[in-house]
Write a structure and sequence with these properties.
By secondary structure, this protein is an alpha/beta fold. The protein folds into two domains: about 5-120 and about 290-325, Nucleotidyltransferase, domain 5, CATH 3.30.420.40; about 120-135 and about 145-285, ATPase, nucleotide binding domain (Nucleotidyltransferase, domain 5, 2-Layer Sandwich). About 40% of the residues lie in helices and about 20% in strands. The protein has eleven helices and 14 strands. Strands 3-2-1-6-7-13-14 form a seven-stranded mixed sheet, sandwiched between helices. A five-stranded mixed sheet has the order 10-9-8-11-12, sandwiched between helices. Strand 11 (about 255-260), helix 10 and strand 12 (about 285) form a beta-alpha-beta unit. Helix 1 (about 50-60) runs parallel beside helix 2 (about 85-95) and helix 4 (about 160-175) packs across helix 7. It is globular.
Length: about 325
Amino acid sequence: MTGHVLGFDIGGTGVRGALARITADGAEPLATRADPTPVRMGPDGVDPDEVGRAVAGVAAALLPPGRTAEAVVLGCTGAALLGAGLRHRLAATITLGRPIPTVLLCSDVLTSHIGALGTGGGVVVAAGTGAIALGSDSRGTWRRSDGWGTLLGDSGGGAWIGRTGIDAALRSHDGRPGGSPALLDALNARYGSPAALVHAVASRPDRGALLAGFARDVAVAAVADPVAYRILRTAGRHLADTLLAALPPGAPPHAAAVGNLLHAGPPLTTALTDRLTARAPHIRLLTPAGTSLDGAVTLAAAAVHQALPPGADLERLTPAAHPTTAQAA
């Protein structure tokens, strides 16, 4: 079998793409490219025209002259927020009239899962601005946990840590119990004042990213501040609980944690592993085998080989008609 596939990882830090050559049992990586322009998020998710242009530009840089791709998989932050009309526009912008037989859209948590563990099942928790876990028994059952957004959920994610740290800072400002003078100093250094922070939160659409930015200050303060230290420990326990809730019955006891938030290191990561050991000692926390981008390429190759993971939530996009849900069978 010959030809190429493309995988994309689309999120707040930009668009990353990878080109791979189709092989008999998968795909051989060839090249990667990135458009580092941040993808704007609004109430309807990502802007499909903006994403489409970025994806088209990266694809043009990756594909050999005169060649097209047999399949494209888009692992996209905020994919669930795209309505039918926006999906239609996204497909039209990406294909630009090129004969691409298969264009599939999915959440980046699915590509993160496949990138980290492959198609053999298990559970992955992804922790960045938000927090979400996805588990599979490899036989068609998938289970999601959290990922309810930074306003209603995403416990233990970057925005949750930032919001909890800001609460401790404001408690210190007011003289209420549970406050942290160290975090109040960090809040003033980052935002100017509590009033300036309130104005920023009220006026900016990317509130989650704004709150998550303070997670870095919490991590720095945690070295010496017991309040910040406890916040990170609590976040790690939340992430472990989210991971365990997403593991379907009978699934392989394999787990992985991915996402930029893990760079915070201890005490968050140690709390996560301690919680897993205490609640489910049979589960093995593995080093992720690859990234979300690797997972997108793996899924694109699987689409060509007609070997998509059973039950995986992938949606086929077409610019000429309303998209149809094409779960793997």
